[in-house]
Amino acid sequence: LAEGRRPLLLAGDCSVSLTTLPTVLRHRPGARILWLDAHGDFNSPATTVSGYLGGMCLAGACGGQRLGQRVLVGAGVTAIIQSSSASVGILQAVASTGLVTFSSAVPIILGQNIGTCVTALLSSIGANKNAKKAAMIHLFFNIIGTIIFLIGIYAYQSIIGFSFWNHSINRGVIADFHTLFNIINTLLLLPFSGILVKLAHLI
């Protein structure tokens, strides 16, 4: 700025971007700001009160995306913020608009359970072998559980069908499904804990 150049800022956090604005305005009082934003909510001109129009991230995942993309978005958002509870909270906020269906939310929730493994994986860096194995078991647990759930749910949907499959999902159902996944997955994989340990040894 002091040299008269035109800076381009790419930041993943609004606070990072906002803190640069006073500096820009000190050097360029007449500057104009072009702000491209993306948040995990659904705001449109018809629903926003403040004029804020965020919503690209989970909006894309909840509408018209393929199954694998929805799982990846759920995993990616959770991995970035390193908190499955916060990621679930974002999805619940999106669902409160009534625009998220059960069919859209299921793969995202399953992906969130995979994304939460990133915290354990990062914590295991530089730790002993047992810590690394525990992190890998956590990852295998959620990946295998996600595959089992996806096969089971979509097989049932294609053969018999859920009456609520394309209905809007609410906050409570999102929380219930998230809890149900972990309980059932634990019960299913507990007898195979030895296999998970062996898989961790192979890595």
Write the layout of secondary structure elements.
Layout: H1 14-27, H2 56-62, H3 67-81, H4 84-95, H5 102-115, H6 117-123, H7 129-159, H8 171-189, H9 193-202
Can you describe what's shown?
- The protein is mostly helical and 203 residues long.
- It contains nine helices and no strands.
- Helix 2 packs antiparallel against helix 3 and helix 3 crosses helix 5.
Question: What's a concise summary of this model?
Answer:
The protein has 203 residues and is mainly alpha-helical. Helices cover 64% and strands 0% of the residues.
Number of helices: 9
Please describe the biggest sheet, giving its number of strands, its sense, and whether it closes into a barrel.
none
3D shape: flat
Mean pLDDT: 78
List low-pLDDT spans.
37-42, 51-57
Query: What is the succession of H and E elements?
Result: HHHHHHHHH
Structural class by sheet pairing and helices: mainly alpha
Cα-based radius of gyration, to the nearest Å: 21 Å
Helix content: 55-70%
How many β-strand runs?
0
